[in-house]
Amino acid sequence: MGKRVKQVPYLAEELISWVEDIKDKNGSSAGALYILKDNDVVVEHYSGRHSHEENARNVQADSQFNVASARKSYLGLAVSFALYDKYIESLDDPISEYMPELDPEIVMGTTIRHLVTHSHGLHIDEKGNWFREFKAGTGWAYRNIGVEILTELIQRLYGKGFPQLLEERIFSRIGLKETGWRTEPDESLVNIIGEVTEPALSGLGTTNDGTEKNLFVSVKEFALWGQLHLQKGRMNGEQIVPSQVIELSTSIQNGPYYDSSLPDNGLFWYVQGDARLRSEMGERVPRDSYQILGVTGPTLLVIPSLNVVVAKMYNKRYNYGGEDYLHYLREFSNKVADLFIDCQQP
């Protein structure tokens, strides 16, 4: 255990004020912030309603937000399990070894490592045709095609989708009831705001196999997902996930890039090595921290050196202001780092 956090009321006020300011600026109807320090809850905040409709439910502890691309951290852990279970021999295996039907000219040289670190260089045009954007391993681009390939890979390797795999191995064992790929309406589910003037979206899917962006999580359980990683897979006195599985997921796995501004990644997590201009984390966030983001605004930041987990939720697509989203993400992560480092001073 580290030093106890001092001045928690001030810390909470600073961070809550920032979260509320962004919520109001960008048209989210809902917001939440949940922070763990030394495994204690030091900030818990809920704000707004499930949509902009007058009769919408107030945000509360059991409200579940659509976490959009933050679901990639769950898929990343499933890939790590596949390596641990020897279904995959190495991250450097060509994906064609496991999915031989893929066009060999397009996927040539593309490994599982490239797919989980956004360095695969594959893209899809408006007609649905695959093409190569850059040579695998030489660049970085946030493209969902890698997620689609690996989702199918886990299904083939285990004979089940990665959500079912995680439910059996993790969720049911640590009591996660407010985490799931939702297909039916429920009052606890927060709507997604597209344009503020348009009707809210449900975010529901047609299946719970992980092929759709319909993962909903309460802010508390989002933080517990981060805490599971922070504690190297150990929860409630039990080793739920082998520590090697967690360590692989949350350490830098990409090779070096010619462009030093490109972000480092673990298995879909952004990981802080040398500070990178195009990373989601600011330059003052300590090394070995990691973070995941969704387009609807959820952000999960884990800072092992400070024993801190920060879960932040919104429900507005492109919540951070379009092309300037990195500025806001980096600003918040720097603020978190500065405040907790300052609070730990004797």
From TrEMBL:
Membrane-spanning segments: none
Pfam families assigned to the protein according to its UniProt record, in alphabetical order: Beta-lactamase
Domain Beta-lactamase-related: 18-327
Official protein name in the record: Penicillin-binding protein
Source organism of this protein record: Rossellomorea vietnamensis
Lineage, broadest ranks: Bacteria, Bacillati, Bacillota, Bacilli, Bacillales
